[in-house]
Amino acid sequence: MDEIGEILRGVGGKWIIKLRKIPDKTPIAVFDSEKKEIGKLLDIIGPVKSPYGVAMLKICSVGDHVYIN
Predict the structure, then answer these.
(1) Which pTM value belongs to this model?
(2) Over the chain, what HEC string results?
(3) What is the pLDDT of residues 9-31, one digit of tens each?
(4) Which domains occur in the chain, in start order?
């Protein structure tokens, strides 16, 4: 499992993730630190040097780290 980023905040029923690593494709399943699927990364937004991801997540909190398989 590769860490892709940290949950920054919730906006309108979706979550914004500060990305450290950009996945090859979207949508892609997102996991918590216990390897449980918590949702999907839907899109990548923002500048190339500081990208963000938009995700639909079930159970999460601001500051949680998220992973992809």
Answers:
(1) 0.86
(2) CEEEEEEEEEECCEEEEEECCCCCCCCEEEECCCCCEEEEEEEEECCCCCCEEEEEECCCCCCCEEEEC
(3) 999 889 999 999 999 898 999 99
(4) 2-68 (2.40.10.230)
Output the six-digit token pair for 65. 């780290």
Tokens of 54: 């938009």
How far apart CA 14 and CA 1 sit, in angstroms, is 23
Tokens of 48: 């190339």
Amino acid at 28: I
